[in-house]
User: Fold this.
Amino acid sequence: MKKFLFAFLALLLASCQTATTKSVSISAVWARPGLAGGNSAVYFTIEVQGYDDVLLAASSDVAEAVELHQTSMDDGHMHMQHMAHGIPLPNGQIVQLEPGGLHIMLIGLKQDLKVGDTFDLTLDFEKGEDLTITVTVQEP
Assistant:
């Protein structure tokens, strides 16, 4: 009986060591100030551990529309592209949403966003559960 218990505990410990932790880590969350009727953008750092995922969409009560965008330079001109198929989040890689790159557009603000204000933003993932984060308005 003792040998059986020892073998069982050793097997259990081995299985725990190979288990993969699945998590989403989001940090450095902020948004640009904006006036009601105008636009703003949200930026943050995100990392998914244990699986590949895709950020499909975002939503917030502070704007008429919320879209995932990519800013790029083409022949010296800045262009914004709607990321209709989402933003890929490869396992273990840090993805930066930042000015001049990937970001979340808040289109048609329903209220002024002043420095120090906070609001909720819900992120919709392909595989993971929806996640609501608090965004703080800051100067760039």
Remarks:
- The domain at 21-137 is CATH 2.60.40.1890 (Immunoglobulin-like).
- The beta strands are 23-31, 39-49, 53-59, 63-74, 77-82, 87-89, 94-97, 102-109, 118-125, 131-137.
- Helices lie at 2-18.
- Confidence is low (pLDDT under 50) at residues 2-19.
